[in-house]
Design a protein that fits this description.
- With about 375 residues, this protein is mainly β.
- The radius of gyration is 20 Å and the shape is globular.
- The chain folds into two domains: about 250 residues, TolB, C-terminal domain (Neuraminidase, 6 Propeller); about 90 residues, Immunoglobulin-like (Sandwich), CATH 2.60.40.4070.
- The N and C termini lie far apart (about 50 Å).
- Helices cover about 0% and strands about 55% of the residues.
Length: about 375
C-alpha cells in the first residue's frame, strides 16, 4: 500500500485566447484507469495497482498508496473516493496519517464517481447503468433515472438547489438536468443544450458553469445553457481521451491514453499580475445566494479567505490551505459557518497570507 500521482499546475485560465502551457509525459508502462483534480490543483491518477503522485518539476512518479483493481476515483478535501472492480466504495485519507477505509456499500457496474455539495455537506454521485446514485454519510439516499456515458457537476455549487444543473453526455449530445436535488433526485428532467454530428470524446464543467466539450482536434466551450463561447484548437487526441477542469483555478488538462501524455491549457487573456496577491471584485455583486471571488497569487502560498460582517465579526472561512501560483476562484453561498443564510447588509472578504493581506467589500441584497 502506498502510491499516488499529484501534479501541481502552476498555470491560470480564462475564456480568452487559450494556449498549451505544460505537458507531462507519463510512463508508457503505466496502465491508467482514471484521473481527477484535487481541491487545490493536484492531479491524482489511478492505475491498475496504485494511486500515484508526480512531481511537476522532476516529473518522476512517487508512490503513495497501492490499491488493486481501482477503476474510478474523485477527490474531496483530504480524501479520495475510489470505486474498485468489485464495485465497492473505498475512501483513502491523505496526509500524515494515511488510511484506506472500505465501505459496506456495493453498487452495480459503476463507471464514474464525482463529489458535490449540498447545504455545505459532501455527497457523492455515482453512475450506474441507467441511473445516477446519490450517496451521503456512507448511505445511499436516492437515485435519478439518467442514462449517461459521462456526467459532470459544477464544483462548489449547491446541489440542494433544484436549479443547479448536472451535465451528461450521451450519443454525442450534451444534456442539462435540473429540477431535482440531492434530497429529491427523482425530480430531475433534461433538455439538450448541445448536439454534434461527430464523436464527442468527453466533457467537463468548471466552477463558473462553463461546459468544455472535447473532440478529437478541438474543445468547444459553452455556457451552462449551451450558448457557444469559443473553440480551442488542440493536437489530435485518441479515442478514450479525457478532459479535466481544476476546481481551484479552472485549469484545463487533457489526457491522451495512447500517447500517455497530459497536456495543460491556460488562457493568455488572464496572465499573472505583477503583484504578489491580487484580490478581485466578486461577481455578482450585490449577492443574492451565490457569488464568485477570484484572486491570483504569484507564488504558492498558504492562505485563508474569511467573510466578515460590518462590525468586524468573522462570518465564515471560505478558503484555507496551500494554493498554487495562478488564478483561483472561490464560491460563497451567502451563508455562515452553520450553513444559515446571512442577512442583507455590507460584508468584507479578507485574503490573508504571511506575505500580505487584501480586503474587498460586497453587499448581500435579496
Amino acid at each position: 500500500m502506498k502510491k499516488l500521482l499529484v501534479i501541481f499546475f502552476l498555470v491560470c485560465t480564462g475564456l480568452g485566447e487559450w494556449r498549451q502551457s505544460d505537458e507531462i509525459a507519463l510512463p508508457k508502462s503505466l496502465q491508467i484507469n482514471d484521473l481527477t483534480f484535487g481541491s487545490t490543483g493536484e492531479l491524482y491518477i489511478l492505475s491498475t495497482t496504485s494511486i500515484l503522485e508526480v512531481d511537476s518539476t522532476a516529473k518522476n512518479p512517487l508512490y503513495i498508496e497501492s490499491i488493486n483493481n481501482g477503476k474510478t476515483l474523485t477527490a474531496w478535501s483530504n480524501r479520495l473516493f475510489i470505486i474498485g472492480n468489485d464495485d465497492q466504495l473505498y475512501t483513502f485519507v491523505l496526509g500524515n496519517e494515511q488510511s484506506l477505509e472500505i465501505s459496506d456499500l456495493v453498487f452495480n457496474s459503476i463507471h464514474q464517481i464525482a463529489t458535490i455539495q449540498s447545504n455545505n455537506n459532501n455527497c457523492l454521485i455515482l453512475s450506474e447503468p441507467g441511473s445516477l446514485v446519490f450517496v451521503r454519510d456512507n448511505k445511499t439516499i436516492g437515485s435519478a433515472m439518467i442514462i449517461a456515458e459521462r456526467f459532470s457537476v459544477i464544483p462548489g455549487a449547491d446541489y440542494n438547489d433544484r436549479n443547479t444543473p448536472i451535465f451528461t453526455l450521451s450519443n454525442s449530445r450534451i444534456y442539462s438536468w435540473t429540477g431535482g436535488s440531492v434530497t429529491n433526485p427523482a425530480g430531475y428532467s433534461s433538455k439538450v443544450i448541445y448536439s454534434a454530428s461527430h464523436n464527442i470524446f468527453d466533457m467537463i464543467s468548471d466552477a463558473g458553469g462553463n461546459v468544455y466539450v472535447l473532440f478529437a482536434d478541438s474543445i468547444i466551450v459553452l455556457e451552462s445553457d449551451g450558448k457557444y463561447k469559443t473553440k480551442i484548437p488542440i493536437d489530435q487526441v485518441s479515442i478514450g481521451a479525457r478532459i479535466l477542469s481544476g476546481p481551484s483555478n479552472n485549469n484545463l488538462a487533457i489526457y491522451d491514453p495512447f500517447k500517455k501524455i497530459v497536456k495543460v491549457f491556460t488562457s493568455s487573456s488572464k496572465g499573472y499580475s505583477s503583484e504578489l496577491i491580487t484580490l478581485n471584485a466578486n461577481q455578482p455583486n450585490p449577492v443574492d445566494n451565490y457569488t464568485e471571488i477570484e484572486f491570483s497569487i504569484n507564488q504558492p502560498l498558504d492562505l485563508t479567505i474569511t467573510i466578515y460582517n460590518l462590525i468586524g465579526e468573522p462570518v465564515k472561512v471560505i478558503a484555507r490551505g496551500k494554493y498554487t501560483k495562478g488564478i483561483h476562484r472561490i464560491i460563497w453561498h451567502a451563508d455562515d459557518e452553520k450553513g444559515n443564510m446571512v442577512p442583507n447588509g455590507v460584508y468584507f472578504y479578507r485574503l490573508e497570507t504571511k506575505k500580505g493581506v487584501a480586503i474587498k467589500q460586497l453587499v448581500v441584497l435579496r
